[in-house]
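re: ur question from the group chat, yeah i did fold both. here u go
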Amino acid sequence: MPDAQPESEVFNKRIKSRVELSAPGKLSEPFAGNHGVELLDISASGARIATFRNFSVDQTLYLTIDKLQSLKCVVRWVKHGEIGVAFDRDLYPAVVEHIAAAHRARTR
């Protein structure tokens, strides 16, 4: 398995614009239940999430935002109190816009 990229490299390679927000969500771990989280930003390809739980790079999770279908994602970086996840499939721009509008987001 290849080494995980340092957080700065992941940020430098980001090509989709992010939208800052404050939205409640849930992360589900297989066989470990749901955990309440706060989405701090989102793009078509991933999100930055505030959480009190400990997760590992390359860990597969399922993110639920509002009443949308759960999104399969993989943890790409971890730092104290936050994780960055990449979605298994990019979100449609209209979905990102809907989430942003619902949570009074601003473009970053």
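okk and heres the other one u asked abt
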Amino acid sequence: MRFHHRTTRLRAIRALLATGLLLAAAPTALAVDAARPETPAPADEVKLYCETIRQGAVDARAAWQARALQEMEARLERRFAELTAQKREFEAWLARREEFLKKAEDSVVGIYSRMNTESAAAQLAAMDRDTASAIIAKLPPRQAGAILNEMEPGRAAMLARTVAGSARK
């Protein structure tokens, strides 16, 4: 029995020591808890976080928008330059075309003015109305009259009306 009594005594001493250590540590733990700032509620934490990062987020968004605007402006300027170059190229092509057509037109009128009236009438009768009218309008009046005289009367009248209408405009 004696052995059992000794074991019980050691257990009691250990329990008292553990309790004493806990009581000695308790004021320290309470002091640490008191030194900590009061933690805000979760909703307050979110609000505090949002307020903390708000200005940085506003600045980042403004910087992003400024970069996006600069990129769009650069693309717009490049496209404008491309279109301006295309416009100049088209205008040059149009000027060359107009010059060619004028030379060709003068040349064609010269050819018809030297043709036999019967042959010229047959060819002009086969052409579309606008082209035939343009050629007749540029021919000297005597030759134009001789060519129209050789044509079928309905076609000659239509061409004469077109020439007269274009002379008024």
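fwiw on the second one: Residues 44 and 50 are 10 Å apart (CA to CA). Residues 1-36 form one domain. idk if thats what u expected
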